[in-house]
Specification:
The protein has 9 helices and 13 strands. By secondary structure, it is α/β, with parallel strands linked by helices. The strands form 4 sheets. A 7-stranded mixed β-sheet has the order 7-8-9-6-5-11-12, sandwiched between helices. Strands 1-2 form a two-stranded parallel sheet. The two termini are about 45 Å apart.
């Protein structure tokens, strides 16, 4: 199948580099025109692709707002769409969890790629019995995050993508504090760097009722929330509009199964003793609710990107009819 790729307008160079590799490989196998790249300064090309009847399937990754727009446009022509949208992902930490597993999982999930992944950990729901042990350990771990050029060895967190992302980061921190949140670490822009796009990894202690907790901010902000039980944690986790990735840390098989049950996590990805980000390769990737419902990779990739056709072949010299009907001609 021919592939038309319209990348984000803020990452055109990486798209050009990758498409050149794809074209080289395709040409070696006799398919020089298999991949096409379209770059625009805004949503114009994307809207035209979504409305074009010649394109049977649109696979869109991005914000929930973008997904709604694409889904509606494709739906008008009864086309097919795969939507991979936002995720306000949570990790639940129960009293019997191993901190040796929890700390690196939380840090990588919340800080990796400067919080700019759809599977980034944005909420940490911690049971009361382990809360006071995890909180200072997490603050200590955050203080050791090395910020800088991601191409430099030893760097753990690089910059945000653009100035608008920095503004959204600062605004979210201010709103969280205004809504009763307590800043435990970070919260500011890092000075003395090669650009003004570097921010501090940020940890905020806050109530689950705070409005800001319902929102996804594409930045390294982690909301720390105390919970009384697994049942309460599941209710809080599922209360956000998105349903992409989730995780629970526990040594109890019963608790793990409760989390994985139909009445447990409502996310498309539900992990046990591993974080929300980085474990999805090879799995059917995608989420529920405002995340869009689409699935990519893993067991579903061939199902989603194929045109399904049912074929019946009659090898006999007679014509069998349904329900045993007979026509005497």
């Amino acid at each position: 199948d021919v592939v038309i790729w319209k990348p984000s307008e803020i990452t055109p160079l990486s798209a050009v580099a990758l498409i050149n590799v794809c074209r080289e490989v395709a040409s070696l196998h006799g398919f020089p025109g298999l991949f096409s790249l379209l770059i625009d300064e805004g949503p114009g090309i994307g809207k035209k692709l979504a409305a074009d009847r010649r394109i049977p399937l649109i696979s869109a990754t991005g914000s929930c707002a973008m997904g709604r727009s694409v889904g509606e446009e494709v739906g008008k022509r009864l086309g097919r769409s795969i939507l991979e949208l936002g995720g306000n992902n949570a990790i639940i930490v129960l009293n019997d969890a191993s901190l040796n597993l929890v700390l690196p999982a939380v840090l990588f999930g919340a800080v990796g790629t400067a919080g700019q992944r759809c599977t980034t950990t944005r909420r940490l729901l911690v049971e009361e019995g382990i809360y006071d042990s995890l909180k200072p350990a997490l603050q200590q771990a955050y203080s050791q995050v090395r910020i800088g050029d991601p191409r430099t060895e030893g760097t753990l967190m690089g910059p945000l993508i653009h100035e608008r992302a920095v503004q959204q980061f600062s605004s979210a921190v201010q709103e969280a504090v205004a809504q009763g949140g307590k800043l435990l670490y970070g919260g500011g822009v890092v000075g003395g760097m090669s650009s003004s796009l570097y921010v501090e990894p940020t940890l905020i202690e806050i109530s689950a009722d705070a409005k800001i907790v319902q929102e996804e901010t594409f930045a390294p902000i982690l909301y720390l929330i105390r919970v009384a039980s697994l049942d309460e944690a599941i209710v809080i986790q599922n209360s956000v509009p998105q349903g992409l990735s989730s995780a629970v840390f526990t040594e109890s098989m019963k608790s793990a199964e409760r989390f994985l049950a139909a009445s447990g996590s409502d996310c498309g990805i539900a992990n046990v003793n591993i974080g929300t980000s980085g474990a999805e390769i090879g799995g059917a990737f995608g989420g529920e609710k405002d995340t869009g419902g689409g699935r990519e990779s893993g067991s579903d990739s061939w199902k989603q990107y194929m045109r399904r056709q049912t074929c019946t072949i009659n090898y006999s010299k007679e014509l069998p009819l349904a329900q045993g009907v007979k026509f005497d001609l």
